[in-house]
Amino acid sequence: MRVIRMQHPGKNALGSDLMGWLEEELSRAGSDPILLMGTGDAFSAGLDLREVAALDASGMERFLRRMDALAVRFHDHPAPAVACVNGHAIAGGCVLALCCDWRIARRDPKTRIGVNEVALGACFPPAILRIVAARLSPHVRERVMLGAGLFDVDKALELGLVDEIADDAEASATRRLEALAAHPRGTYALTKSSLRAGITTLTPADERRFREQEVPIWTGGEVKARMKAVLERK
């Protein structure tokens, strides 16, 4: 079992540094089971807005493609992957949790979980859009993704953003991972890949929409202004 414990600035803000670290941790994990978690009151509170707000179009495209590829690696990891959602899991942080096979949130009334990209004026990168849509039940998908709300742990459980709530989430997540890892590894990997086949395969239309519509939105004035407003409140 490989424990990947995020301990990065900005409540584990997803920027180039954290993404690079996660890429290395996934490489070290190989095909071993993974327990993904954060520290303190944050699993990951979303993107590093300071970095993202400074990107030009080419830099933004590289950044979003890298984020997409990281999500795909977690989503397609052949061994069991469990997320211990120890605190806030917002936007990209919530996406990372959704990429895992099972998600256990720590019981804390202050924790907020959700994908609020649309509220920021931003789009979901193409593979991430497909992953989130596949991981949510059809009857809540639009409520979660278009509503762009942030929810407490009980509502997150009701909506399927997490699978369990526990006082000692790390211990519960470890037990869940051990139970999943006890299954024959080859059978688990084959069944998981069969269930998720095609989800992260992008079409030419996906690629065209990403380049021609989504990247310009991310680099446009409205999103930049919203990011600046969020940063000024911090």
Biggest sheet overview: 5 strands, parallel
Indicate the low-confidence ranges by residue numbers: none
- Assign a percent range to the helix content: 55-70%
CATH superfamily: 2-enoyl-CoA Hydratase, Chain A, domain 1
CATH class: Alpha Beta
- What's the helix count? 13
Mean pLDDT rating: 96
CATH-defined fold name: 2-enoyl-CoA Hydratase, Chain A, domain 1
Strand order of the largest sheet: 1-2-4-6-8
Q: How large is the radius of gyration?
A: 17 Å
CATH architecture: Alpha-Beta Complex
- Count of all domains: 1
Portion of residues in beta strands equals 5-15%
From N to C, what is the helix and strand string?
A: EHHEEHHEEHEEHHHHEHHHH
| Structural class computed from helices and strand pairing | alpha/beta
- The N- and C-terminal alpha carbons lie at a distance of 36 Å
Count of beta strands: 8
Description:
The chain is of the alpha/beta class and 234 residues long. It is 56% helix and 12% strand. It has a five-stranded parallel beta sheet with strand order 1-2-4-6-8, with helices on both faces. A three-stranded parallel beta sheet has the order 3-5-7. It has a single domain (2-233), classed as 2-enoyl-CoA Hydratase, Chain A, domain 1. The protein has helices at residues 9-12, 16-29, 49-53, 57-75, 92-99, 117-120, 126-135, 138-145, 153-159, 169-181, 185-195, 204-219, 221-233, and strands at 2-5, 34-37, 42-44, 81-85, 88-90, 102-106, 113-114, 164-166.
